[in-house]
Amino acid sequence: MPQTTRSIVVDGQPLRVAIRPGSARRVPLLLINGIGASLELLQPFVDELPASLEVIRFDVPGVGGSPLPARPYRFTGLCRLIARMLSELGYEQADVLGISWGGGVAQHFAAFQRSHCRRLVLVSTATGALMVPARPSVLVHMLTPRRYFDPEYLRTVAPVLYGGSARVEPDQVSGLMHDGNRVGPAQGYVYQLAAGAGWTSLPFLPLLRQRTLILSGDDDPIIPLANPRLMRALIHRSELHVYHGGHLGLVTEAAELAPVVDRFLADGGAGG
């Protein structure tokens, strides 16, 4: 069956959802995207995953095709919404992959919506407010969604912001990020920034029960490598895979990283 995209309403909030059907024998994979990005951005990664793996994507409220919520939210409220979205779609449990900002949401989801998350994949992400920070010259570009509106600006900042292949092929990154990506209102980006303000996963990472795969690039200006190494030390049932690339490796190196994720999810190790 082909991928379907539709809008559903969860607790009064319309959400744009895309589902690529797979085999009933496998646990579906839920993807949580980075800040400002609609579900289209991860299409290259989805295309590299085996057809047997069902994939669920959605636009966070205020991003892409999901309307701005009535009020700002925190990770706790967003994770409750995601859990209810899964139930509304008929899923009791999913494997959860979060990238960048979405990786913070995924950590929170695994900790506080534990019954809905079997395994966890954390990509290009860290522990929130308490982390080894990026340089100010990098962080300043994260304060605005301009890179999603202005392709020329993105080509200019991509090398310093994303690292990896963006240093030599900024046009490729600009093309991927503007190929069908649906940009939401600027206020939606502000809500995402506010949702994670002051949040940290450090106190609860040692309590996570899920088997966890941490993916990090060796040239990620936003997430210095010290951060995933710290997460690996704190999450008991975790493994760290460092790839040669930058912050957007899940998209730019999708052919390399999709099999790594699939092997981890398909591995029948003890305890799920």
Structure description:
The protein is an alpha/beta fold. The chain has a single domain (4-133, 185-266), classed as Alpha/Beta hydrolase fold, catalytic domain (Rossmann fold, 3-Layer(aba) Sandwich), CATH 3.40.50. The chain contains 11 helices and 8 strands. It has an 8-stranded mixed beta sheet, sandwiched between helices. Helix 3 (101-112) links the parallel strand 5 (94-99) and strand 6 (117-123). Helix 2 packs across helix 3 and helix 6 (151-162) packs across helix 7 (170-177). The longest helix is centred in the first third of the chain and has 14 residues, at 75-88. The protein is globular and about 45 Å long.
